[in-house]
Design goal:
Blueprint: E1 2-6, E2 9-11, E3 17-24, E4 31-38, E5 45-51, E6 58-59, E7 67-72, E8 75-80, E9 89-97, E10 111-112, E11 116-120
Parallel strand pairs: 2-11
Antiparallel strand pairs: 1-3, 3-8, 4-5, 4-9, 5-6, 7-8, 9-10, 9-11
């Protein structure tokens, strides 16, 4: 599975952005899919996850109520609303065959995109 993110950019506090992640390759299994982010000097943190069937959406406390994750066919989306300065980071798409560990732990995921930069200023 190959993952390619797009949609990053700059926004003002309170603004919105939409990130996309297109999955290609072997896509016959049910996958756990997630968005992570990493800002300078910090650990990569899980933001939201969902299965490739569109169920079991989960959010980190820091984005709950502001971000929305969804999946349509082979594309994963993350809608970022009410942006804050602290949301500035490189955002990564991740995937792994779904299992009991499907969550926001980065060690669970086996496939990663290269990331897209989000800057809030």
């Amino acid at each position: 599975v190959q993952l390619v993110e797009s949609g990053g950019g700059s926004a003002q506090p309170g603004g919105s952005l939409t990130l996309s992640c297109v999955a290609s390759g072997s896509w016959s299994e049910r996958y756990c899919m997630a968005w992570f982010r990493q800002s300078v000097g910090k650990e990569r943190e899980g933001v939201a996850k969902i299965t490739s069937l569109g169920d079991m959406a989960t959010y980190s406390d820091s984005v709950s109520g502001r971000f929305t994750i969804r999946v349509e066919k082979n594309t994963l989306y993350l809608q970022l609303d009410s942006l804050k300065h602290d949301d500035t980071a490189v955002y990564y798409c991740a995937a792994a065959p779904v299992g009991a560990g499907c969550g926001l732990n980065k060690d669970y995921f086996t496939h990663w995109g290269r990331g897209t930069q989000v800057t809030v200023s």
